[in-house]
From TrEMBL:
Residues 1-30 are annotated as: Disordered. SUPFAM superfamilies: Oxidoreductase molybdopterin-binding domain. It comes from Kribbella shirazensis. Residues 37-158 form the Oxidoreductase molybdopterin-binding domain. It holds the Pfam family Oxidored_molyb. This is DMSO/TMAO reductase YedYZ molybdopterin-dependent catalytic subunit. InterPro entries: OxRdtase_Mopterin-bd_dom, OxRdtase_Mopterin-bd_sf. It comes from the Bacteria.
C-alpha cells in the first residue's frame, strides 16, 4: 500500500520575488504535509518528552508537566528541504534552553527522536541560546498531528522536512 503525501503535488516557480527566501525556495501560503508513512496520532495522556543520553533518561515530562512550563511565542520563517518556504509563521512553545537548564550536557551533538520514528542529528549549539523550541501551537491553534502535534521540535534556522 502506498502513502500519498499532498505536499509533493504541483510545480512551482523556481525563482522568487522575495529577498528573504533562500535561493531555490518558493513561498507557499499552504502548510504542506510531507510524510514517508502513516501519521502518528499521539494522545496527550500518552505523550512524554524525554531527554537522555548514554546514562538513560535524565529528565522526563508528561503533557501536563510540559504545558505547565514557561512558554514563548515566536514569529519565524520556516524553510523545507523540499524547497517550500512559509514566511511569518507564529508558534508557541517551550524554549529548549529551559528544558536543558538542569541537564548535564556532555556532548556536542544531539539526536531528536519522534513518535513516528523520524530522527535527526543536530549540533547542540543549534538548540541553545534561544534558537529552538518544543512547539505545541501553530498560529494560536493546537499543533495537529499532520504537522508533528501534539508537540514538535522547532529549529527555524535549520531547514525542516515538513513535519
Amino acid at each position: 500500500m502506498a502513502t500519498f503525501s499532498a505536499g509533493f503535488t504541483g510545480r512551482h516557480n523556481r525563482s522568487s520575488p522575495h529577498a528573504e527566501l533562500p535561493p531555490g525556495q518558493y513561498e507557499t501560503q499552504d502548510f504542506p504535509v510531507l510524510s514517508a508513512g502513516a501519521t502518528p496520532h499521539v494522545p496527550v495522556d500518552a505523550w512524554r518528552l524525554e531527554i537522555g543520553g548514554d546514562q538513560g533518561v535524565v529528565r522526563s515530562w508528561s503533557w501536563e508537566e510540559f504545558r505547565a512550563l514557561d512558554t514563548e511565542q515566536v514569529n519565524v520563517d520556516i524553510h523545507c528541504v523540499t524547497r517550500w518556504s512559509k514566511l511569518g509563521t507564529t508558534w508557541t512553545g517551550v524554549p529548549v534552553d529551559a528544558l536543558l537548564s538542569d541537564v548535564d550536557l556532555d556532548g556536542d551533538f544531539v539526536t531528536a527522536f519522534s513518535y513516528g520514528g523520524y530522527t535527526t542529528n543536530l549540533p547542540l549549539e543549534d538548540l541553545l541560546d534561544g534558537k529552538a523550541w518544543v512547539a505545541f501551537e501553530y498560529e494560536a491553534e493546537p499543533l495537529d498531528p499532520e504537522h508533528g502535534g501534539p508537540a514538535r521540535l522547532l529549529v527555524p534556522h535549520q531547514a525542516t522536512l515538513g513535519r
